[in-house]
Design goal:
By secondary structure, the protein is an alpha+beta fold. It folds into 3 domains: 2-163, no CATH class; 262-325, SH3 type barrels, CATH 2.30.30; 330-448, Alpha-Beta Plaits. It has helices at 2-26, 29-61, 68-79, 81-100, 107-126, 132-151, 154-163, 175-204, 211-236, 244-258, 260-275, 315-320, 347-359, 398-415, 431-446, and strands at residues 165-168, 171-174, 283-286, 289-296, 300-305, 310-314, 324-325, 333-341, 371-377, 382-390. The strands form 3 sheets. A 5-stranded antiparallel β-sheet has the order 6-5-4-3-7. Strands 8-10-9 form a 3-stranded antiparallel β-sheet, with helices on one face. It has a two-stranded antiparallel ribbon with strand order 1-2. A hairpin with a 3-residue loop joins strand 4 (289-296) and strand 5. Helix 2 (29-61) runs antiparallel to helix 4 (81-100).
Length: 453
């Protein structure tokens, strides 16, 4: 530990020495003049940037109907206006001083013009990163690297970061290695994300793949690309991946005891994707839940009902439980409606009228036969079943049932067909007779003689 601390002190002393030499060089007369010129240029660029920014914003507001990418580009240019003007002025002054005086007397202006140019370029390029915290982190990291590189502090800073390290047996982990690993991993993850999105667009638009195979292919592509990026990032910092064997064994043991349900749901999700039992867009019912599948996740299936609720059903329930898939092999669904009519009505006429009424409902398929059968002779009515087909179960079943029932009601009213209901006949005895009979029964029960009539 003492050797590591002494190495840190030595590297820090070397970096501080480089900074002292740089500061002393800035105190030379012509360097001070150049710093004053740079200060004036920055003030002029600030004032010109404010004026140009106001004019640009006013001009953009006058342009109606511009697409979003043009507005975004205008915002980026407006936010970087001061830096761009400073770069132009610095390079102009440097070019003039190169012609009228010694080149060494404009070295500092050229140096800061180069750094400012790189900073402005990084600022413009970073705006294409949508994630704001990530954009700020990458921007500041790039600006720091550029400043250290052009000011000559890069080697000293690298040595100082490399001296901050910890050692585990034969493995040495330094701050420089971690930083390099993060940069490499970040770049690889960015590339993996771009490639993954491109492949996902190709997969989702390919009609040769079934919906379940598209989901499985997308998951496999994401796992492969991001896994490779992370592995390469770990190798970039010198991490020995063979040491993960013991760790993976411990994780597997922990999964076996504590994460059984999670692993079961993950495996069930893969099984669902492979056997194609359900797929996005299918209409299913599981218990009291009826809706269509919105998304197949790694742990759950998202089912959206007609009332807008979204149920997250674990994959294990879909594999081990009984699921009704209304659109597994095709989109056709048969619906049965039960009703009854009076014994006074002709059942042949009732069947014909019911078929005609159901055929006139828009959602009922006309190319599939509508049938009506007598099921039994009930206590109060002749019972029928009306069977018809639809192909849009995702639109709901209650709506089409209600529409067919209304069509039956209208047709029966038009033809004088009645729908009976249970009736009961009640007989009320005379109250005087009931009271006298109750009194005689009471006296006989008490043992007394009946009164003479």
């Amino acid at each position: 530990m003492e050797l590591i601390d002494q190495g840190i002190l030595d590297a820090g002393a070397g970096l501080i020495g480089q900074i002292e030499i740089f500061v002393r060089s800035m105190l030379l007369p012509w360097r001070l003049y150049q710093l004053a010129i740079l200060g004036v240029l920055f003030a002029v660029a600030h004032l010109l940037g404010l004026a140009a920014r106001h004019r640009l914003e006013a001009w953009v507001r006058s342009r109606e109907g511009w697409p979003k990418w043009r507005l975004r580009l205008a915002v980026i240019v407006s936010s970087r206006m001061r830096g761009a003007i400073f770069v132009l002025l610095a390079w102009l002054v440097w070019a003039v001083m190169q012609q009228v005086t010694w080149p060494s007397r404009s070295f500092l202006i050229g140096l800061w013009a180069t750094i400012a140019t790189a900073w402005v370029a990084v600022g413009f390029a970073a705006q294409f990163i949508r994630n704001r915290p990530l954009r700020r982190a990458i921007t500041w990291l790039a600006w720091t690297y550029i400043a250290l590189h052009y000011l000559g502090f890069l080697d000293g800073a690298a040595a100082f970061l490399d001296s901050i390290a910890v050692t585990f047996d034969d493995f040495r982990l330094s701050a420089l290695g971690v930083l390099k690993g993060l940069i490499v991993t970040g770049i690889l993850l960015f590339v993996a994300r771009a490639l993954t999105q491109a492949l996902i667009r190709r997969i989702t638009t390919n009609e040769d793949f079934s919906p379940s195979m598209r989901v499985l292919s997308v998951k496999a592509v994401q796992l492969s690309f991001f896994g490779i990026a992370i592995v390469i990032g770990l190798r970039a910092i010198g991490f020995d991946l063979t040491g993960l064997a013991v760790l993976s064994g411990a994780i597997g043991l922990g999964i076996g005891f504590g994460l059984q349900k999670v692993v079961s749901n993950l495996v069930s999700g893969v099984i669902i994707l492979l056997d194609k039992s359900i797929k996005p867009g299918d209409v299913i019912s599981l218990g009291e839940t009826f809706g269509w599948i919105n998304e197949l996740g790694a742990r759950y299936v998202s089912v959206v009902t007609r009332d807008g609720r979204e149920y997250l059903i674990p994959n294990e329930d879909l594999v081990t439980g009984q699921v009704v898939n209304w659109s597994h092999s095709d989109e056709f669904v048969r619906i049965d409606l039960h009703f009854g009519t009076s014994y006074a009505d002709d059942p042949h006429q009732v069947r014909r009228i019911a078929v005609e009424a159901a055929t006139g409902v828009p959602r009922v398929l006309a190319d599939r036969e509508v049938r009506c059968h007598i099921t039994d002779f009930g206590d109060s009515a002749i019972n029928f079943v009306l069977r018809f087909w639809i192909r849009d179960a995702h639109e709901g079943l209650a709506g089409v049932r209600g529409a067919v029932y209304l069509a039956l009601w209208d047709a029966f009213q038009a033809h004088g067909i009645t729908i009976p209901f249970p009736q009961r006949e009640l007989r009320v005895l005379d109250s005087t007779v009931k009271v006298e009979s109750a009194g005689v029964a009471a006296r006989q029960a008490s043992g007394g003689a009946p009164e003479p009539g």
